[in-house]
Specification:
Layout (H helix, E strand, L loop, with lengths): L1 H18 L4 E6 L3 E3 L3 E9 L8 E6 L6 E7 L6 E7 L9 E9 L3 E10 L6 H24 L1
């Protein structure tokens, strides 16, 4: 009688230990420094993979933590790997500085990686004036078309 009870206790302990195994997430980028016309390749891995099909959420924080420049929801393959390509040529990543990517795997684990963006493209006064002139011209033409009808 004592042997079957001991076997059940040991078997149950093994199941509980596996269920509460520590989940680890790792993330990395292909480079540390990018310009504002690049693509950041962010890759990572989770171990063990959550069998319920959990996804990795990655939040990009702007320099100084003053805003969010992107949120990505990524599926994890059966090996625990995931990846995403992030375009730096967006208005949300227009400033030079350190951008931080925070990854979270269903509240089980999290990790952070940072990259630096440099050589921001400045908008010149003449470029702004040209854009303003083009808009004014579009409005003038639009008014002329409406007045003809």
């Amino acid at each position: 009688m004592l042997v079957p009870v001991t076997i059940l206790i040991l078997a149950g302990t093994g199941v509980v230990s596996q269920a509460f195994a520590a989940t680890v997430i790792t993330i990395e980028t292909d480079k540390d420094i990018y310009d504002h016309a690049s693509t950041i390749i962010l890759t990572g891995n989770v171990d063990p993979v959550d069998l319920r099909g959990s996804e990795v959420t990655i939040m990009c924080k702007s320099p100084g933590g003053m805003g969010v420049c992107g949120i990505y929801q990524l599926s994890v393959n059966s090996d625990g790997n995931f990846s995403v390509s992030i375009n730096t040529a967006t208005f949300l990543m227009k400033k030079d500085g350190i951008y931080e990517f925070q990854a979270n795997y269903s509240g089980l684990a999290d990790a952070t990686v940072s990259v630096e963006l440099t050589n921001a493209i400045e908008t010149s006064e003449t470029g702004t004036a040209v854009i303003g002139t083009a808009r004014s011209e579009e409005r003038r033409v639009g008014k002329e078309c409406r007045s003809r009808w």
